[in-house]
Amino acid sequence: MKRRIALLAGAGLSLATASMAHAQSTVQTGKERVVIQVSTPEQRLWNQAFNYLANLREVYGDGNVELEIVALGLGIGALQLESTQGPRVAEALQAGVHVSACEISMRRQKLKREDMLPSIGFVPAGLGQIIKRQREGWAYISG
Amino acid sequence: MKRRIALLAGAGLSLATASMAHAQSTVQTGKERVVIQVSTPEQRLWNQAFNYLANLREVYGDGNVELEIVALGLGIGALQLESTQGPRVAEALQAGVHVSACEISMRRQKLKREDMLPSIGFVPAGLGQIIKRQREGWAYISG
Amino acid sequence: MKRRIALLAGAGLSLATASMAHAQSTVQTGKERVVIQVSTPEQRLWNQAFNYLANLREVYGDGNVELEIVALGLGIGALQLESTQGPRVAEALQAGVHVSACEISMRRQKLKREDMLPSIGFVPAGLGQIIKRQREGWAYISG
């Protein structure tokens, strides 16, 4: 038994770099948590990502799932004020989805917060956010 | 020691949302398990995904690896009856690879089971399947 | 308590297929570890991948992060001698990033080690490397 616990120490702790408290709350609330990365400007892939969100809400049921979509790199433009994705972003936000823009990517493309769609969230680094979510036990999907 | 176990409770449980039994059997059988997501219609990326399957079978050896390829979104068409990927799908199925079509994506594109390649599997939701596999401890590869 | 440990056995062990020692050292060194897959020949996506590396080094700080970029499939050409990505590969190597070329992909494209950029690393199978990293507790990003 001791050996088993020692083994666990390695496996478990390697995944425990980030917030342990959040991981525990994931289990306590029983919610499925999924982070989706979108790093492309292609509209059809953005449409697909929003379909993914709709599918996941349907599959798990609102209230049983926590979703975050992180836009970064070449994908950051889709969250600009004039983006054709505006209505779907608004719909996602309305449904409680976290929509997060990478501020490093924004700086690279000279975008300010006021250039972006209203009510979205900002994260200092898109990849950092995705890595943090993985550490917290969220499933990861590349959009 | 108590504190260590408490830490483990957070890390371990956050990954334990899905089938615990399957995760245990993964360890018991000693097989590597890998799920590959394909959500593109691009033939060269489908060819690449089938190369991935061949590579993984070569690297681990048949019998030491369990593989699943999940087609969803824009990728669902590659599993249609008339798909040029038909021979490679047949070869993968023959080798014991799970080939799974997302039924949500099929409905979006008005595809019925009889419109699809023979002997493939169907999952209610492609993303749900990938998330389930991640929870069960499968490695995840975006194709 | 016994039941809690039993639960952990399933969750923890399912993620413990690979090197337990490395997973433990991840925790001991306190470094964030991230593996990035690049399987595309598109230059803009390679540029993006190198931006990712720069961002991660900035976010975590050199010395606090261990990074590996694995080129495979259609992405292998970007590590050829004459690649326009040469300077950024050299910069990444200089910064201590592991740059790994998949030898299966090289064989498929008749590339020898002497055809590739100097100082890069070689792995028998790119996917095998990525899967191994996931087992060791590295975060995974699809580039």
Radius of gyration of chain A: 17 Å
- Major interchain interface with per-chain residue totals: A-B, 32 and 29 residues
Question: What share of residues are in beta strands of chain A?
Answer: 15-25%
What is the H/E string of chain A? Answer: HHEHEHEHEHE
SSE class of chain A: alpha/beta
What global shape of chain A is seen?
globular
* Helix amount of chain A: 40-55%
Strand tally of chain A is: 5
Characterize the quaternary organization of these chains: homotrimer
Major β-sheet strand ordering of chain A: 4-3-2-1-5
User: What number is the mean pLDDT of chain A?
Assistant: 86
Determine the number of helices of chain A (DSSP H or I, runs of at least 4 residues): 6
Q: List low-confidence stretches of chain A.
A: 1-25
How widely separated are the two ends of chain A? 42 Å
What characterizes the major β-sheet of chain A?
5 strands, parallel
Describe the protein's architecture and organization.
The structure is a homotrimer. By secondary structure, chain A is of the alpha/beta class. Helix content of chain A is about 45%, strand content about 20%. Chain A is built from six helices and five strands. Chain A has helices at about 1-15, 20-30, 45-60, 85-95, 105-110, 125-135; strands at about 30-40, 65-70, 100, 120-125, 140. In chain A, strands 4-3-2-1-5 form a five-stranded parallel β-sheet, with helices on both faces. In chain A, strand 3 (about 100), helix 5 and strand 4 form a beta-alpha-beta unit. The first copy, chain A, is globular, with a radius of gyration of 17 Å. The interface of B and C includes residues 23, 26, 32, 56 and 137 of B.
